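Help wanted!
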Amino acid sequence: MSERYETLAARIEERFGEQVRRVPSSCSELTFETDKDHLIEVATALRNEADFGFEMLMDVCGVDYLNYGSDEWATNEATGTGFSRGVERGPVILDEADEFDARRFAVVYHLLSLQHNMRMRLRVFTGTGNPPIVKSVVDIWNGANWFEREAFDLYGILFDGHPDLRRILTDYGFIGHPFRKDFPISGNVEVHYDDEEARVVYRPVSIEPRTLVPRVIRDDNRYSADLKDANDG
Amino acid sequence: MAEIQSYTMNFGPQHPAAHGVLRLVLEIEGEVIQKADPHVGLLHRATEKLAESKPFNQSIGYMDRLDYVSMMSNEHAYVMAIEKLLGVQVPERAQYIRVMFDEITRILNHLMWLGAHGLDIGAMTMFLYCFREREDLMDTYEAVSGTRMHATYYRPGGVYRDLPETMPKYQESKFRSKKELEQMNAAREGSLLDFIESFTERFPGCVDEYETLLTDNRIWKQRTVNIGVVSPERAMQLGFSGPMLRGSGVEWDLRKKQPYEVYDRMDFDIPVGRNGDCYDRYLVRVEELRQSNRIIKQCIDWLRDNPGPVIADDHKVVPPTRVEMKDDMESLIHHFKLFTEGYCVPEGEAYAAVEHPKGEFGIYIVSDGANKPYRLKIRAPGFAHLSAMSEMVEGHMLADVVAVIGTQDIVFGEVDR
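Answered by r_m:
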């Protein structure tokens, strides 16, 4: 991490104190986490105060941490069975739960400062409530409008104060939030042309889900922090 | 006097000036736009979700299909994000090749934009002229990767293979005379670098040609000057990048400000507009054509003198060559593991951005240490630009909507992802 970024990180920590927590990074990027109650205050300061000057919001995206760090095929020793590519189709999952894990949904903001030529990332977890909800930053950065609509569409995260929170990428009348980790990759419905009704209709999806390459996590000592040389990107 | 009633009009999604599948719902009073509501997502393929279910390398091909007129630039951001997480060093020669092809891609993109934008607002000739030059650049794609568009040429650690020593030639056919054939193959006798060099020598003349048709053309100016004006403050507020930001007079180019690969060794200028209207953005992009040409020339000179490896020598990430694989057990194992399982990327998150022809194209990867990305987010410049559509067309005439769509350089592959 370069000196300029360390200075910026120190300034942010000094200015916001308890409101932000720094997240360590393996590739010299500056990430801070903040609570959703402090989001607007922190974001406004980051944009308006001369020390920070993050006048551009490059990206807003949702992240679903449901199966973070879990693999589909643990092979610590030799196995005689192999990996079955077929996947059993579960029922359609609509999140009826009252509460989520507090660290399930996050909204990630990528900020850019043109005057200081710096980037940083701000992450907010949405907490336990269902539906997940955070304050909208559209008033601070107008460019957030569509990015927040996208996060709403794909993850079902609500943005309080957004002027026009509609679906954006999915079809008119789409049900569910497709980028959630519990939403099947082949979807729930497919369209086809019905001869009798003489129109296009929806029906339950007929393709069978498959896992072509299982998700595996390997321990690799080359990447462990104590063995790696100090990396000053 | 009769009362003018405001009404709602639907534009697209199947409309030649919508540059793909854009549906615009326009509120119009007379012929003046009150509000525009773009409906996007008709080309949504959930690229990001698909990438989450595949090993890292298998998604490179998807990147080509995002902004399908600047394929290699998309790949570039994606492989850069992976390299950032892996900590892989890219050989110098590969960096030069990448810079060269990024600039070839920029010319490809801007030619497509110039042709289509011209066609939209009444300059039919441009389309034909631009496609003539595009064809040569497509051939360089083909020579290096085997395909004209979806190259999958950049790989984490470098590029797939070195530049070829020969160029594919036109074949004899009964529709071409011998003389014609010789003419067409004249630049193709040498290596790929010779072919690109002959292009760079010819190309500034072509740009002059485009400019004689448009720059001082009265009709062109009537359609573009003072249309879709964006102030620098608004451009920043709305998250604009690339020529859209520079057209408004903000001097910001990642190639200069946050140089990646070998851009810090390149000599080139950043054109900046003054008024932030469609005409200024046109001038900016045309000048970028010339600057890209300069960069390509510098890369050719370096690449001629400096042979070397084009991909990292790390078989945990980069597959060994076929020859090695056939007679070395270790290489065979690496090969097998890489093509069945892929490689695991250490836990962490990275955001890599390139100065894509359309603006800042960023890839944000969250990895939990698996062989597939946990979350991949594509920051498409066109998405931010299109979100400002309503603001840009308000108060303009219906015909100017087409000029604004053109000037935003919208491609739905990346907007809808």
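OP: Thanks! One thing I noticed: Residues 242 and 355 of chain B are 7 Å apart (CA to CA).
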